[in-house]
Design brief:
Length: about 400
């Protein structure tokens, strides 16, 4: 009886040839499942169902890393890749590392198709970006796909930012998989965009108009500020940042500021959240009667010039109107010939109507001594004084007091 076959041992040459013909021979590159038989300093012996046991060299085991290598013990079921069905020493040469890598390549391709996001640790960097761990593989995140690398950054600044990434865990998305070239590219920027879309969907379901939420200023634009309110952005239009007119949001906000915001509108169809900061601030018109009075001389900045006069922003954040007849003596045919946006002026308050949100001002009714007194007071407060070249001087003599000659109109 032939050893190893018992009662089923082949008895003829034809039977032996038939067995050899049907035998599932290991093939190069094939993935096989097996049982660990022995682990020693030379390597690992694995029963993968072949005529001979497979051998995994010690250096292949080391490439797995401490955690994965610790799971390779006698009796454990493992997956290995056939490197050589028969090497020079007649052994079936296997690789545990490449088998696990193949599984990781499969997982990377699945994530590329699904668009799933994963958390991955940054384990290194090079001149072009950072390297993240992906199982037994290494993924590369280029500088253009990292959130904290500004496009204007120079080489030294970029390399410093790369080093600061090392050791951190970041959210990334697989954007390219190429096994043949051993190329696995990921993006932190696209991962964040996906997360923000998901968070936006959740916020749109939860937010209600009139709600007050806290957020962080993420970006400033000419038209307003984007505020992160929990992983998604809401827009505070420039007109809703402050009660006074602003040329740019940076006059009162900085990126990174934490602010409370009032939810104005939730547009679920267009996926937009409109916020207001000024709605949570005191309306300056409620404070006008305690702050201003008829006959008072004040300084302000021209915010708009129209056919019938000029609007001037005062320190409380409200605007008063200088009617054309109160700009100069004689009145200019076109106010824009005398005043321009940004001009700083000294004016007398002619009337205050807080109920209708109107303040009437005059430039011609401020005499030179009063103007000098206001300017001296401004100069005593660093950072508040206007440039002398910006102070608009009315022409002609100015009486001390009086009422506007014509009924002013405000808009």
């Amino acid at each position: 009886m032939s050893e190893g076959y018992g009662e089923d041992a082949p008895e003829t040459m034809e039977q032996w040839l038939a067995i050899d013909h049907t035998y599932d021979r290991p093939k190069r590159g094939e993935i096989r499942r097996g049982i660990v038989l022995r682990v020693d300093e030379d390597g690992v012996m694995i029963d993968v169902g072949a005529k001979t046991d497979g051998f995994v060299p010690a250096n292949d085991l080391e490439r797995l890393g401490p955690e994965a290598a610790a799971e390779v013990v006698v009796g454990a079921e493992v997956v290995a890749r056939v490197l050589n069905p028969r090497d020079r020493e007649g052994r079936l040469l296997l690789s545990l590392y490449q088998a696990l890598s193949e599984k990781d390549w499969d997982r990377a391709e699945q994530m590329l198709q699904s668009g799933d996001i994963l958390e991955s640790q940054v384990i290194g960097d090079n001149r072009g970006g950072v390297i993240v761990r992906f199982g037994q593989l290494r993924g590369f995140v280029p500088a253009s796909h990292l959130l904290q690398v500004p496009r204007s950054a120079g080489t030294a600044e970029r390399e410093q930012i790369f080093r600061e990434y090392v050791g951190k865990t970041i959210s990334v998305k697989v954007i390219e998989v190429n096994r043949e070239r051993n190329r696995l590219i990921m993006s932190q920027r696209l991962a964040q965009q996906s997360l923000r879309r998901e968070n936006m969907e959740q916020l749109l379901d939860e937010l209600q108009e009139g709600q007050v939420i806290r957020g962080k200023v993420r970006a400033l634009r000419d038209f307003g500020a984007f505020v992160d309110v929990g992983g998604a952005d809401g827009l505070v239009h420039i007109s809703e940042i402050a009660w006074q007119r602003l040329k740019h949001p940076s006059e009162v906000l900085r990126v990174g500021d934490e602010v409370d915001a009032y939810v104005l509108r939730v547009d679920r169809e267009r996926k937009r959240i409109s916020l207001s900061i000024k709605r949570l601030l005191p309306d300056p018109w409620d404070l006008v009667d305690d702050h201003y009075y008829e006959g008072q001389v004040v300084a302000g900045t021209v915010t708009n010039v129209v056919d019938f006069g000029a609007f001037v922003s005062l320190d409380l954040g409200v605007e008063g109107l200088v009617h054309t007849s109160e700009i100069a003596d004689p009145p200019p045919a076109n106010p824009q010939d005398v005043l321009h946006r940004g001009d700083q002026v000294v004016a007398r308050i002619l009337s205050v109507d807080s109920a209708n949100q109107r303040i009437s001002l005059s430039l011609v009714r401020v005499d030179p001594s009063e103007r000098e007194e206001v300017l001296a007071r401004l100069h005593s407060k660093p950072g508040l004084e206007p440039s002398p070249s910006q102070i608009t001087q009315p022409r002609g003599e100015a009486p001390e007091t009086g009422q506007p000659q014509d009924e002013e109109a405000q808009s």
